[in-house]
């Protein structure tokens, strides 16, 4: 249950569209399109796009830049901004710091953890020990028994 919604009774399509959000190590952005285009896949409202850029500490002039022109940290923040526009209840972050330097990686961890609250769950899949120190619980897959 997330936010008193029984996800087991949802259709798979509704679950993926409305409840679950992903952040991938490779950002899953359309490289030859602009930031605005990528954000617009979730929400075309320009004002809300500007708000999420501010929330991820990026300047608004990036809206018209192509993804391939951005640094790894900027691209990862755009992926997070896109996620903010979606407002999922559950966020799966797959190696969100894997391609980033230590400082940018910590900023991304802090940003993702700031999204975690009573209404939103953030789940990291990572090998990064810096993440282990920042989260409430660590589950080692190798320790699980079936």
From TrEMBL:
What residues does the ABC transporter domain cover? 9-97
Which Pfam families has this protein been placed in? ABC_tran (PF00005)
Question: Under which name does UniProt file this protein?
Answer: ABC transporter domain-containing protein
InterPro entries with a match to the protein in the record: ABC_transporter-like_ATP-bd, P-loop_NTPase
The major lineage groups are: Bacteria, Bacillati, Bacillota, Bacilli, Lactobacillales
Q: Which organism is it from?
A: Weissella cibaria
Any one Gene Ontology MF annotation carried by this entry is: ATP hydrolysis activity
């Amino acid at each position: 249950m997330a936010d008193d919604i029984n996800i087991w009774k949802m259709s798979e399509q509704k679950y993926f569209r409305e409840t679950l959000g992903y952040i991938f190590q490779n950002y899953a952005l359309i490289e030859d399109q602009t930031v605005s285009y990528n954000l617009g896949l979730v929400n075309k409202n320009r004002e809300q796009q500007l708000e999420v850029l501010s929330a991820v500490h990026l300047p608004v002039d990036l809206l018209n830049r192509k993804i391939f022109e951005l640094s790894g940290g900027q691209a990862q923040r755009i992926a997070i901004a896109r996620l903010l526009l979606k407002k999922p209840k559950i966020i799966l972050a797959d190696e969100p710091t894997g391609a980033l330097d230590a400082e940018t990686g910590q900023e991304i961890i802090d940003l993702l953890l700031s999204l975690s609250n009573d209404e939103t769950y953030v789940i990291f899949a990572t090998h990064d020990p810096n993440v282990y120190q920042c989260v409430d619980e660590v589950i080692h897959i190798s320790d699980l028994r079936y």
